[in-house]
Amino acid sequence: MKIAIGMDHAGFDLKLDLVQFLETLGHKVIDCGTDTNESSDYPDYAHKVADLVSTEKVDRGLLICGSGIGMEMTANRHENVRAFNCFNPDMATLARQHNAANIICFGARQMPIDEIKKSIKNFLITESENGRHERRVNKIDRRL
Hints:
The protein is of the alpha/beta class. The chain has a single domain (2-138), classed as Ribose 5-phosphate Isomerase B, Chain: A (3-Layer(aba) Sandwich), CATH 3.40.1400. It is built from six helices and five strands; from the N terminus they run βαβαβαβαβαα. Strands 2-1-3-5-4 form a five-stranded parallel β-sheet, with helices on both faces. The two termini are 28 Å apart. The mean pLDDT is 94.
């Protein structure tokens, strides 16, 4: 699977560990920045990742800022993006199953790295359940 990742300065310290984790699982990682822990603006990275997900140039996205909130809000401004702020592995599973989520967001200061990794793994291995959820997912985009 091809996964785009992006983070601001708050998520930078997690970056190398998460890239290695994703590559160990066999995924190709597209790094959309940041490349430093100096202060940066989360929308810059959220837009890069969301553009790739929206246009299906990647399969999924991963975004990290201090709280996860700004990344989620920014990513969800893009067509065909269903981003969510994850707080535990069960949320990652449900977001995929029920909402066909395609970008997972985290607050670097909100969860320990082992819980982030479990959540990412669930997000990547869980398939979207069509059927009763598909009608609802189609209603998310107001342009439909």
